[in-house]
C-alpha cells in the first residue's frame, strides 16, 4: 500500500511549522495511524534523521493521549475512534494523508504533533472532585444509586479527555467535555453539597480558555467515547441552576 504523508513538523511552541512530505511504499491496511508513524520514525532513525514527535500511551483507545488530525478530521476517518485504533483500511492505495496536531488556541503545540492539553485539566481542577472523609472505603451499599442513574453516569464518565471535541469545533469549544463531567457528577450522591459551586467554577474556567459552542454537533461526531450531544446542554443547565442558588448545593 503506497501512501503520501504530509506530516506537521514544528520545533517548538514559539517557532513556525511546516508540512514535511514522506513517501511510504510498504504500508499495510491493518496498521493504525500511530503504527504508520512508528514505521516512518523507524526509517528516519535508521537514516540518522530526527523522528516525528507525537503523543501516545495505552494504544487501546482508553487514555486519550494520541490526539492528532488526519485530513482535517480529529483522530482520522473512522467515526468515534481514537487515532491509535484508526486503521489504514479507511484509506486507499495512493492516498495522501495530511497528519497534523489538534488545532485550537487552547492547545499550543509542544513539538510536531504533540500539543499541550492542560487547559482541559484546569477545567477538571476547578470542580472535578467531591468532598469526602478520608479513610477506608465505605460499604458498597452505604450510598444508594438506582441502576438507571448509575449506568447513565458511567456513560458520561466514559469521556477520556482526548480533546477531539475541541479540535472539531470551529469555535474551539469544550462544552462536550465539560458537560460530560458535570452530568456524570450530578447523577451521583457524592458531591451533591458542592454541585452549584462546581458548576460555577468549571464553567468559568471553560469560558476562560475555550470558545463558545457552535451548536452544530461536530464534537459528538468525532468523540471516541461516544458522548452524546445532550452533554453540551448540561453546561448551561448547570450554570443556570447554580445562578439560582446562593450556597453550594
Mean pLDDT: 93
Oligomer: single chain
Helicity level, as a percent range? 25-40%
- Global outline: elongated
Classification by helices and strands: alpha+beta
Rg is: 20 Å
Look at the structure and name the CATH superfamily of the largest domain: Alpha-helical ferredoxin
Number of DSSP helical runs: 8
Strand content: 5-15%
The CATH topology assignment of the largest domain is Fumarate Reductase Iron-sulfur Protein, Chain B, domain 2
The low-pLDDT segments are none
Lateral arrangement of strands in the main beta sheet: 2-1-5-3-4
Say how many strands there are: 7
**Alpha carbon gap, first and last residue:** 58 Å
CATH architectural group of the largest domain: Orthogonal Bundle
Report the biggest beta sheet as strand number plus sense, adding barrel if it closes: 5 strands, mixed
- How many structural domains does the protein architecture include? 2
What is the level 1 CATH name of the largest domain? Mainly Alpha
Organism: Corynebacterium glaucum
EC number: 1.3.5.1
Cofactor: [2Fe-2S] cluster; [4Fe-4S] cluster; [3Fe-4S] cluster
Pfam families: Fer2_3, Fer4_7
Amino acid at each position: 500500500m503506497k501512501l503520501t504523508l504530509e506530516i506537521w513538523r514544528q520545533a517548538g511552541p514559539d517557532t513556525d511549522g511546516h508540512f514535511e512530505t514522506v513517501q511510504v511504499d510498504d504500508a499495510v491496511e491493518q496498521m493504525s495511524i500511530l503504527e504508520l508513524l512508528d514505521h516512518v520514525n523507524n526509517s528516519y532513525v535508521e537514516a540518522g534523521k530526527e523522528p516525528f514527535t507525537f503523543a501516545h500511551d495505552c494504544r487501546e483507545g482508553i487514555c486519550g493521549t494520541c490526539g492528532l488530525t488526519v485530513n482535517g478530521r480529529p483522530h482520522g476517518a473512522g467515526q468515534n475512534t481514537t487515532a491509535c485504533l484508526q486503521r489504514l483500511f479507511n484509506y486507499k492505495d495512493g492516498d495522501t494523508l495530511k497528519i497534523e496536531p489538534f488545532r485550537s488556541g487552547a492547545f499550543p503545540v509542544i513539538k510536531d504533533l504533540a500539543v499541550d492539553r492542560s487547559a482541559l485539566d484546569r477545567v477538571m481542577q476547578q470542580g472535578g472532585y467531591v468532598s469526602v472523609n478520608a479513610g477506608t472505603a465505605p460499604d458498597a451499599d452505604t450510598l444508594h444509586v438506582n441502576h438507571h442513574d448509575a449506568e447513565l453516569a458511567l456513560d458520561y464518565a466514559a469521556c477520556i479527555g482526548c480533546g477531539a471535541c475541541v479540535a472539531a469545533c470551529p469555535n474551539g469549544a469544550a462544552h462536550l467535555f465539560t458537560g460530560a463531567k458535570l452530568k456524570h457528577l450530578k447523577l451521583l450522591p457524592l458531591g451533591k453539597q458542592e454541585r452549584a459551586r462546581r458548576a460555577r467554577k468549571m464553567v468559568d474556567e471553560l469560558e476562560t480558555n475555550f470558545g463558545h459552542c457552535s451548536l452544530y454537533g461536530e464534537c459528538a461526531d468525532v468523540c471516541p467515547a461516544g458522548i452524546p450531544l445532550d452533554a453540551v446542554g448540561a453546561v448551561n443547565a448547570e450554570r443556570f441552576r447554580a445562578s439560582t442558588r446562593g450556597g453550594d448545593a
